[in-house]
Design a protein that fits this description.
Blueprint: E1 3-7, E2 13-18, H1 23-28, E3 31-39, E4 45-49, E5 54-61, E6 64-68, E7 71-75, E8 79-84, E9 89-92, E10 98-105, H2 109-116, E11 123-125, H3 129-140, H4 150-173, H5 178-189, H6 197-203, H7 208-219, H8 223-241, H9 246-252, H10 258-269, H11 273-280
Helix pairs in contact: 3-4, 5-8, 9-10
Length: 281
């Protein structure tokens, strides 16, 4: 159920634009619902839930705070948040706060949100100047709001989302313990060996629990899943470019048998090696 309350009456400076997209755009593309730029005083706040919209909010200066899904986020200079407005959210300031905002939606936006929201952190401090440039372009360029530019709007929105996800992932990867990067490199190079979680843990002198949980935390999959996906990726070349049978391919890739190779292939590619070879050879 949609509920909202806010105080936006005492804005020092504001740009507030509304956009009504076409029916085809709503069905097929990312689209803007409203967007703008606010310079606020200490009475400014918005509290709502049940709104079928996603929100990007980029702080230019000053500070605000966001309460969302049981967490509180400081919204300071260069911070960017991405939230689902169906969930209860409350943002406010006790300061002179300047920020850009975009309310938007589209058939694939929930997928972008789910990726960004992994690890329950919905804020980044952006170092990517292009993100802010694109936000300003959407707000300041009147031509970008014309109905015949809906493809341009969709492109800019998806470019912004792609860049913030990549930036967040780069921050996460910079925090990966060196030992886990070593394991990943080893799997890329030694995928043809008969490897188990236990043998990996012994080689790198860590516990199986640490290796499995740490790898999944930073790379979103277990070491054995990563190994098996690497093997299946390598198998595609062998199926297309050689006449090797399935037993030979399994053996070269360190997979225990042809039936197990077929099982893994179907798990990751949703088809059989035989069908893949016929389609792609």
């Amino acid at each position: 159920m949609y509920q909202t309350e806010s105080d936006t009456n005492n804005l020092k400076n504001a740009q507030w634009l509304y956009k009504i997209p076409s029916e085809n755009t709503i069905k097929n593309l990312a689209f803007i619902q409203e967007l703008g730029y606010f310079e606020t005083d200490s009475t400014h706040y918005t509290k709502r839930n049940g709104l079928q919209s996603f929100l990007l909010l980029y702080t230019v200066s000053g500070t605000g705070e966001l309460q969302y899904q049981g967490k509180k986020y400081l919204l300071d200079k260069n911070s960017l948040i991405f939230i689902d407005c169906m969930n209860l959210h409350y943002y406010y300031t006790q300061d002179n706060w300047k920020y850009y905002f975009i309310h938007f939606n589209g058939p694939n936006i929930a997928y972008y949100y789910d990726i960004f929201a992994k690890n329950n952190n919905l804020r980044i401090h952006s170092q990517d100047d292009v993100i802010l440039d694109y936000i300003k372009l959407l707000i300041n360029n009147e031509n970008s709001l014309r109905s015949d530019n809906e493809f341009l709007i969709a492109k800019l929105l998806t470019d912004i989302l792609t860049r913030i996800i990549v930036e967040k992932e780069n921050i996460r990867f910079s925090l990966v313990p060196d030992i886990l990067n070593q394991v990943k490199t080893y799997l890329n190079q030694q995928y043809s060996k008969k490897l188990t979680l236990n043998s990996l843990a012994r080689k790198f002198n860590v516990s199986e629990s640490y290796l499995s949980k740490g790898f999944k935390k930073y790379f979103n999959e277990t070491p054995m899943d990563y190994l098996n996906k690497t093997r299946i990726d390598k198998s595609k070349y062998l199926l297309k470019k050689t006449e090797m049978n399935l037993e030979e391919i399994a053996d070269v890739l360190g997979i225990s048998s042809a039936p197990h190779f077929i099982k893994l292939f179907k798990k990751y590619l949703h088809t059989t090696p035989k069908k893949y070879r016929i389609l792609w050879k």
